[in-house]
Amino acid sequence: MAGLRLASVRKKFGATDVIRNVDLDIADGEFVVFVGPSGCGKSTLLRMIAGLEDITGGDLFIDGRRCNDIEPRARGIAMVFQSYALYPHLTVYENMSFGLTLNRTPKSEIDTRVREAARILKLEHLLDRKPSQLSGGQRQRVAIGRAIIRKPAVFLFDEPLSNLDAALRMDMRMEIAKLHKELGATMIYVTHDQVEAMTLADKIVVLEGGVVQQIGAPIELYKKPANKFVAGFIGSPK
Ligand code: ADP
Ligand code: MG
């Protein structure tokens, strides 16, 4: 497991400032949600933490180690995308084990981990299927399973439920909360959905235009929004 620290983290695309001086401490095992409207920089911030995007300025520490220039695979992080990004020609089992196979993890160890993840995610009976034979919710479970079997210290989720219908989204939300309890890993979760943010988070980071508007527990944001934007976004009474 690992905590994270962002110190004055900035991102420019060309001349455009997309993330401005983000300072953020994330404790080991914390569930942190980045929330804000489309285009506010949530994915960019997450992708910098994952190492999929260069950091223009500032410092990123993971478990006390400065990681600005550490390659993604060495950061101890796994990311789950909205689009699932499964291989259509591989089975559920193969989709989950693929990354570890490349890492030369022993077959028996891979098998143990895949079956454990399948148990947690209720995919045991689907291991031989191809993604086209699965529902949207099942596909997203496979994508989460693929992250779990890498045993990352930090999980990153980028709007993982946005492609699912409302009822399924609620189910999956509960499952992700359960997963966090069971694994105890640090999780950073991006969404534009206030309800998801309020129900999942230990700590919420509200972003607008690449600027942090407020950081706090859901109840703090609700009771003491820092400004009108936060109040409006969170749905506070004032
Ligand atoms: P969010 O995930 O909150 O919807 P993004 O992080 O995807 O927002 O994008 C933040 C801003 O950065 C947007 O204005 C977007 O157009 C811009 N942006 C994102 N990726 C790139 C890129 N590769 N090149 C140029 N601009 C980008
Ligand atoms: Mg995004």
UniProtKB/TrEMBL annotation:
<keyword id="KW-0813">Transport</keyword>
<dbReference type="GO" id="GO:0055052">
    <property type="term" value="C:ATP-binding cassette (ABC) transporter complex, substrate-binding subunit-containing"/>
</dbReference>
<comment type="similarity">
    <text>Belongs to the ABC transporter superfamily.</text>
</comment>
<dbReference type="GO" id="GO:1990060">
    <property type="term" value="C:maltose transport complex"/>
</dbReference>
<protein>
    <submittedName>
        <fullName>Multiple sugar transport system ATP-binding protein</fullName>
    </submittedName>
</protein>
<dbReference type="GO" id="GO:0016887">
    <property type="term" value="F:ATP hydrolysis activity"/>
</dbReference>
<feature type="domain" description="ABC transporter">
    <location>
        <begin position="4"/>
        <end position="234"/>
    </location>
</feature>
<keyword id="KW-0762">Sugar transport</keyword>
<keyword id="KW-0547">Nucleotide-binding</keyword>
<dbReference type="GO" id="GO:0005524">
    <property type="term" value="F:ATP binding"/>
</dbReference>
<dbReference type="GO" id="GO:0015423">
    <property type="term" value="F:ABC-type maltose transporter activity"/>
</dbReference>
<keyword id="KW-0067">ATP-binding</keyword>
